[in-house]
Fold:
Amino acid sequence: MNIYYFANSVYQFSYALPVYNCIGGVFVVRDRKKFYHLKRYMTNMARFNEKTFRNTPEIKIIPRRELNKLDGVIFFLANSIVPEDDYKNAVTIFHEHGTSDKKYSGGQSRGGRKLAKYDYIFLSGPKNKERLTDIGLDIPEEKLIKIGGLRFDDYVNGKIDREKEMDRLKIKDRSRKNILYAPTWRFGDGTIKKYGFRFAREITKEYNLILRPHYHDRRYGAYIHAVSKLKGIKHLYFSQPANLIKSDTLFDFAVSDLLISDISSVIYEYLITLNPMIIVLNEFKQRHNMSDEMNIMKHADFYDGSQNIAEIIKENLETQKYKKDYKVMLNSCFYSTDGTCVDKAAEFLERL
Structure:
């Protein structure tokens, strides 16, 4: 059976890559711009003897309203199914790109009708399931497949080389701790425009700072990095979120000793490291209601702009005060944190 991976933005395909590397498939984009973008960043990533330009996996351009003509499995990495269409020759699967607290639009809204349309939903964990419940969606249990965090396996199985990734980022002073700043974007009231330059100035006095903006803020993140460098700021590094092969988020996790973020999904994915986190407060209101063991806001220190960020970092690095909480939270939020998530997904797809 043919397997097609569909996403709205290139970065969302990072959740499909581990599955493709295991069983193959075709990547589907909706326009020519994204086709060339994906071709650029997936050069030499073909794993199944595909005869393609730049030796990439097979990539096709198919508008969203024509996906229902496909014959096989359509693996959606964004909630982009058309609820009015009949996918009579396909099995449709949805897997959320991330597990943040940003609220799904659910119930009788169009977003809710889309979620109810899929034949199956691959769940990353109990938190993913609770997010569906929180918006009033009653999806039959047989449609909810317990998979886990598809991007966790290489990290858990020790396949990411910390020194190699520091070489990628060109980190010079390796006696310093590495702080990863990975905020969300405008949808979520991302904090990079408010604190990006400030963190570059203040954190780099004592630590290495890795700036990893959201994909949609990648140009502004590069601007912060370039201007700061011109001003003589050292120990500042930039990780390109558009390069889903060389600069995967988990690669930056492996390098970092502490995360600073806001309402990005990385605050839950980062639990896999058990490293400290600092949450930057913002004004975003549309959040899911979660129990304490699935709510990072109950288990982290906050930054509101009035404190000394370096002092908060120092305290968290020295005390590791939430580490026990993170061990509990990891398994409360995610299934299969033992490095077997991709195998579970591949076995299910092959059974289809």
Q: What stands out?
A: The mean pLDDT is 95.
